[in-house]
Design brief:
The protein has two domains: 130 residues, Aspartate Aminotransferase, domain 1; 239 residues, 3-Layer(aba) Sandwich (Aspartate Aminotransferase, domain 2), CATH 3.40.640. The protein has 15 helices and 14 strands. A seven-stranded mixed β-sheet has the order 4-10-9-8-7-5-6, with helices on both faces. A four-stranded mixed β-sheet has the order 1-2-3-12. β2 and β3 form a beta hairpin. α4 packs parallel to α12 and α14 crosses α15. The chain is globular.
Length: 412
């Protein structure tokens, strides 16, 4: 047997994606990291390109991936225990570094316990598999991340046990709650903390003020869940994320070490009982090897840095550079979605102009993400910029200058 027939069918599917404008472009390959110098932030080399690039498309909000303390921690842990765990957690694949990270992230987000996963994506799936049952009803924001949507499908949540409210619309959330059937025993309200394509945030305080009114209606209560992958570490006065910014913390916090903390992996933080249930029931935890000890040691070190004077300095520079960029866009007369988060969308609202701006930025050594139809609706074409703590005032000024010249050329 060969793959000839399957290849032909898949080639047709890929061609359809291409003709519909939904195919991913070829992946650029980073070959080298160049440390900050001469008042500029780090630059990156790409395979086949001579110039060095400023990344304005990185989730590494605190710029910790190349921090010497993280590298040293990963190196030390690897020398102590090796490069891989050699088994799943319950077959002696649990190392002291896994436990240390779980205890550290639980303290960081203010929960009794935590369990780490290979990603926030698998964390969402694991939670749905753990707390869902035929008597559970799920309500989510219309713009929730794919991992939350996919988790519902993997857990087999029937369409009748789901509700969706318009983005950040509290009146619709209340209507969804009012519409839940009397046979439901457990209600889960789940939402992103930061919506990654827009940079706006869930009003957690308002969401929980509403869900508080329904707590006694259901046998197992109303459980609030936030996936704060883009908020944790990068948002709030001390980097505790959207819950800190909004003033209330949901019952369960899901997050990642792969964005602000600059490493890899995800987590679920909740009560001791919920976390033990995750350990017992979550397929995406049980049937896969865990993170390496290097990842765990580096992530634990990243959390320690976040809680230090250095971490506060990084957060402050992140806020300053984000404000500089947002104010710069406003001065240029360009449209964005307001908010203090370092995800800054530039609303271009035209496919051709979006492609032209992305190309012009690339030609000038700036990496960004352009989102056009049909990935986003016509009229919502966007360039997503992501500010990092290692960006300097000069970096942001240069990007704004490139945009100003590019926009001027488009208008002429």
């Amino acid at each position: 047997m060969t793959l000839t027939k399957l290849d032909k069918a898949l080639q047709e599917e890929i061609f359809r994606l291409q003709t519909e404008g939904r195919a991913k472009p070829p992946e650029r390959i980073i070959t080298c990291y160049h440390p900050p110098e001469r008042g500029l932030g780090p630059r990156y080399s790409l395979l086949g390109e001579q110039q060095r690039f400023l990344r304005m498309n990185s989730n590494s909000y605190l710029s910790l991936s190349n921090h010497p303390q993280l590298i040293a921690a990963a190196d030390s842990a690897t020398h102590a225990c090796g490069v891989g765990p050699g088994a799943v957690r319950f077959i002696d694949g649990t190392f002291s570094y896994h436990i240390a990270l779980e205890e550290r992230i639980a303290r960081f987000v203010g929960k009794e316990a935590a369990r780490i996963f290979n990603s926030a994506y698998t964390s969402n799936c694991g939670l749905a598999l753990t707390i869902g049952n035929p008597k559970t009803h799920w309500i989510g924001d219309q713009l929730n991340h794919n991992s939350i949507i996919r988790a519902m499908r993997i857990a087999g949540v029937p369409s009748g046990n789901k509700g969706i409210y318009a983005h950040n619309n509290m009146d619709e959330l209340r209507r969804c709650l009012d519409g839940v059937g009397d046979d439901i025993e457990r209600l889960v309200v789940i939402f992103d903390g930061i919506f990654s394509m827009r940079g706006d945030y869930a009003p957690i305080d308002k969401i929980m003020a509403i869900t508080d009114d329904y707590a006694e209606k259901f046998k197992d209560g109303v459980i609030t869940v936030v996936d704060d992958s883009h908020g944790i570490g990068a948002y709030g006065a001390s980097g505790r994320g959207t819950p800190e910014f909004s003033g209330r913390t949901p019952d369960i916090v899901i997050g990642t070490f792969g964005k602000a903390f600059g490493v890899n992996g995800g987590f679920i933080a909740a009560s001791t009982t919920v976390v033990e249930a995750v350990r017992q029931k979550a397929d995406t935890y049980i049937y896969t090897n865990p993170l390496s000890v290097a990842d765990c040691a580096a992530a634990t070190t990243a959390l320690d840095i976040c809680d230090s004077a250095e971490g506060l300095r990084l957060l402050e520079n992140l806020r300053l550079r984000t404000r500089q960029f947002r104010e710069g866009l406003e001065k240029l007369g360009l449209e964005s979605i307001p908010g203090p988060h370092p995800v800054v969308p530039l609303m271009v609202r035209d496919t051709k102009k979006t492609h032209e701006l992305v190309k012009r930025l690339f030609e000038n050594g700036v990496l960004v993400v352009g989102l056009t139809f049909p990935v986003v609706p016509k009229g919502d074409e966007t360039i997503r910029f992501q500010v990092n703590a290692s960006h300097t005032e000069a970096d942001i000024a240069s990007v704004l200058d490139i945009l100003a010249k590019a926009i001027s050329k488009q208008e002429n």
